[in-house]
Amino acid sequence: MAKVDDDVLFNPSALLHYLNKSRNPYQQGDLYLGRVHLHVAPDRDPESKHYLPAGAYPPSVFPDYCSGTAYVLSRSALLKISLAASASPLSTPLPPEDVFVGLCARTAGVLPSHCPLFSGGPGVPYGRCCYQAMVSIHHIPPREMLHYWADVHTSHPCSWLSLRASLGLCKVRAMLGFPDYILWGKQEMSQTLQI
């Protein structure tokens, strides 16, 4: 089962490719896969929408959990987490959804697995080869979602070298916060975004 936010471009083909390469297809077990957040402290600011008072959750950090932008659960993990959720006492206010799933996963003994092909914080600038390899890309405006989906799924597959180079370049641009036109030229970028 995949949980995906509405501003995320989700690529099931890339997920299947990743799972086939990284796991034995006959391997059974729990899968809780996504971009793992480590050692995150609860938001104690009463003005924040994610405010969680110490009375509702006393520890100073959450257990590791997958970002709520997109994550994948195997059937067995989903069942264990659902059972833990139904048995857990609810506090007010509830922690954010992804944190709650992480808390229930810890109770159920299901560990999160990090996959670098799930994007998180900074937006990943568009690059066809990069997007072909990514499982999820966060912060995609609705207008661009259809264009990116069509371009990624109707164009020819990228070569191994193009794919690796594109992933590296996308990572650098996302970390530095550069818009594409700084690196590629404004005119070329505007041409690639035309539908």
Describe the structure.
- It is found in: Golgi apparatus membrane.
- It comes from Etheostoma spectabile.
- Its EC number is 2.4.1.-.
- GO terms for molecular function: hexosyltransferase activity.
- Belongs to the glycosyltransferase 31 family.
- The chain has 195 residues and is an alpha+beta fold.
- It has two domains: 2-114, no CATH class; 128-192, no CATH class.
- The longest helix has 17 residues, at 160-176.
- The chain is globular and about 55 Å long.
- The protein has eight helices and six strands; from the N terminus they run ββαββααβαβαααα.
- The strands form two sheets. The chain has a four-stranded mixed sheet with strand order 1-4-3-5. Strands 2-6 form a two-stranded antiparallel sheet.
- The model is unreliable at 178-195 (pLDDT under 50).
- The two termini are 31 Å apart.
- The protein has helices at residues 12-22, 75-87, 97-108, 128-133, 142-154, 160-176, 180-184, 186-192; strands spanning 2-4, 9-10, 32-37, 65-73, 113-114, 136-137.
